[in-house]
Amino acid sequence: MKLCKLLFLFCVSVISLGASPEIGKAAPGFQLPAQDGKNYSLEGFKGSYVVLEWFNDGCPYVKKFYDKKFSKMQQLQKKWTLEKKGDAPVIWLSVLSSAPGKQGYMTAEEAAEKKSKLGAHMSAILLDPDGKVGKLYAAKTTPHMFVIDPEGVLRYMGAIDDQPSARTSSLAGAKNYVEQALESLMKGEPVTTAETKPYGCSVKYQSGWF
User: Fold this and answer.
1) Global pTM value
2) pLDDT of 30 strictly over 50
3) What is the DSSP-derived secondary structure letter of residue 43?
4) Cis peptide preceding 21, ω within 30 of 0
5) Which of 76, 62, 73 is nearest to 143 (CA)?
6) Percent share of the chain, pLDDT over 70
């Protein structure tokens, strides 16, 4: 009897871990500390659009977007969080799910310094060293992007654009899926490309994930 119960619990656990977020359904809730010493929750941003960006500054694909010569990610963050006037504000959260000792891991102090050094405009860098939130979202790459509407519903997930390359030359003329999703949502239109295959470096979780 005990063995059956243990097997049942194990199976439930596996099913839970294998669950993935779904477009058109409520985005998984979370609460994480950030580089500024504050705690941020998804629930706390109800009424706002939320962009989640899985981040690892050591990844060449991430470096492409933050390259100071082009500042593509910085410009994108600034446009939507500081300049864009829409029906609701945009909150941009960069999530660090690298485990301690793995590429991309940072303490709060290191993350704050990195944000300043990059001249980035994300609303906060969230610290997820045990990977719980990354696994909750089935985040596989850096970057891996998610767009959540003001009601907390997931409207886009996948790649940041249609150019799966680490070369900065690929930035020119790229179709940015995150920007397209935000533009459509703010016009009250459906997101035509709601899910794509993410590209980049694998998220540096503790061993045993993805």
Assistant:
1) 0.90
2) yes
3) G
4) no
5) 62
6) 90
